[in-house]
Every structure is written in C-alpha cells, then in structure tokens.
Amino acid sequence: xxxxxxxxxxxxxxxxxxxxxxxxxxxxxxxxxxxxxxxxxxxxxxxxxxxxxxxxxxxxxxxxxxxxxxxxxxxxxxxxxxxxxxxxxxxxxxxxxxxxxxxxxxxxxxxxxxxxxxxxxxxxxxxxxxxxxxxxxxxxxxxxxxxxxxxxxxxxxxxxxxxxxxxxxxxxxxxxxxxxxxxxxxxxxxxxxxxxxxxxxxxxxxxxxxxxxxxxxxxxxxxxxxxxxxxxxxxxxxxxxxxxxxxxxxxxxxxxxxxxxxxxxxxxxxxxxxxxxxxxxxxxxxxxxxxxxxxxxxxxxxxxxxxxxxxxxxxxxxxxxxxxxxxxxxxxxxxxxxxxxxxxxxxxxxxxxxxxxxxxxxxxxxxxxxxxxxxxxxxxxxxxxxxxxx
Length: 390
Known about the structure:
Elements: E1 9-14, E2 21-26, H1 30-34, E3 59-60, H2 71-76, E4 79-87, E5 90-98, H3 108-180, H4 187-218, E6 227-229, H5 231-241, H6 243-248, E7 252-257, E8 264-266, H7 268-284, E9 291-298, E10 302-309, H8 343-352, E11 357-363, E12 367-375
Parallel strand pairs: 3-4, 7-9
Antiparallel strand pairs: 1-2, 1-5, 4-5, 6-8, 9-10, 10-12, 11-12
C-alpha cells in the first residue's frame, strides 16, 4: 500500500454463506492466491494472533485472540499486521498487511488513521451487501410477479375452457330434450335421445367432479381411502363408460390386462378418476381410426397401469409442464382438442396422494404413453382428511 509502504496487503472478505472468507489481494501473484486461504471463522482461525515459535510475529490490531489466519500461509507471505473490518460487531473482513519496506513499525497515528478508514470501508461494504440483498429480493419479486401473471393467464384460459366444456353438453342435453317433446318421435329414437342425454349428463358430472377435486387439491383437503381393490375391474368399467367416445372416433381399444394381477390397496374412486382421465386423454388426442393400448401388470412392489395412444404426441419442451394445473399443450384459442386443462394435473395429485408415481413418454407425431404405479400395501394418505362429493 503506497502511503504505508508495506510489502503487500491481503483483504479477506466474508463469503455469502458466512462460514468462509475469500481472498481479495494486491501484490500477490495468481499462483500465490491459489495456494492461499480457505478460511473459516472457527477452524482456520485458531487461538492466538501473536505467534512466536520461530515464525514471523503477527500483531493483532483489534482481532479477538480466538481468531487467527493460517499461520503457515501468513509466514510465507510475510504478513505483519491484521486489522478487522467490522459493522455492528460483525466481522465482515480482515486486512492483512506485510512488513514495511523500510522495516519500521506502524506508528500509533498510522494505526488510528487506518482504523478510521477501515471503519468507513466496513460501512460501505455493509451498504453494498444490503444493496445486493435488495437487488436479489427485487429479482425474486419480479420472478414471482411474472409467475403470478402466468398463473392469472392460465386461470383465465381455464375459465374459458370450462365455459366451453360446460356449454357443449348442456346444448346437447337441451337439444335432445326438445326432440323428446315431439309427438311423432318413435320409441327407438326416444331411447337414442335419452341415451345421449344420459351420456352428456355423465360428461357434465365428470367435469364438475374434477373441478371439485381440483378445489380440494388446492386447499390440501383431499381425502384418500385406500382399500383392497382390483385395478383390472376399474379399467374395464371405465373403458365401458367411454364406449360412445371410442366408437364415435372408431378407435381400436386394446386391453392387455394381466390375468393374475394381485389385488392391491388403493382408493377405488380416486383411481377410477385417474384411469378415466388418462383414457379420455388418449381418446381425445388420437386420430380417427387410431389405436389406444391399455395394459396392466404386477411390479416388484405394486401394480402398474400403462395407457398408450398413437396420437399427436407431446413436444419435448412441454413434457415437464403438462402435469401443472390449467396447463395444456395447445393453449391457443384455435386449439383443436377440448378439455379444461386439469385432467393430467389431477392424475398426478391423485396418484401421488396414494404414494404412487406417474410418468410420461412421448414422441410428437407418434403418440404418448402414461404409466401409473400404485403400491401393493397401504401406506396412508398424505392429505388431511375431508369429505369429498362422490
């Protein structure tokens, strides 16, 4: 340092994790810095600041006796003085000074002057740290604000989608109900119209139940009641309930269900919703005359269900987000597939609430495959208990 005419100066600053000091040095070669300090307030700083025993004496100028740097390093660098830089009794940095060029000691005046300068430097360092903290908080708030804007956009899109999904079956129900009022409608047509009303009513019921489940997931009040059940039976029931949708698109549904699948413990109602959402999704995104393959098998510690389609597939950059609430691969106003954007997010929540897992693999233009694994034995629900509508 020019005014003090010391051979070298090393500034040790406290790292962000507050357990280490990093070296900022002047008058040191890069190789000397590399060999230098990996300092910790308790550890590398040991018991004394003044060391004799054949080593260069190091004079502590205000450091507690318990704090001392690596003596060997200080000896090699011919460090003579150590000055603490504190703010509000917190040790923020340490200034290490080498011997004076002329061999003289620092005078009392020089030490006081240096301490005054370092007090100001400590305040500057503290303000800089505070400023950096504020910038970091501001960046975090900006990121959170962007996330909230994205969620608001997704919820707006969700409300629009739900409105469309409700309007379609309601329009069908009203239309078929009006047809039933015509006196010249024969019995066969009346049955057909009634079946259509029933199908659209079930579609409405399924959508409403999904919205209610989503509400319970959001409020963390989803109740899971596992009991011994047969996964194959649930798959067959769901497949039959979606028969009209399968036939309307001329989908070939292949059921490859393991005949010796063990009965396992899961919530039948929640699992039925999982199977329905996955199968409904596969049908919806399949091309006309396409094929959907559903298989079950026994795993090492549970049962496994796989639903595979040969539809449009999912882009790689959308695979991680498809299980998010309100998220759809095609979120545009001109999207060609229906849905409210909550089916897959509910699948994930309902499966994981039963200590299971769900995975997806997909190739755009070739189709997607969803695999659900459920444990054989009950391990309890991870959700607080609350009654849900059936």
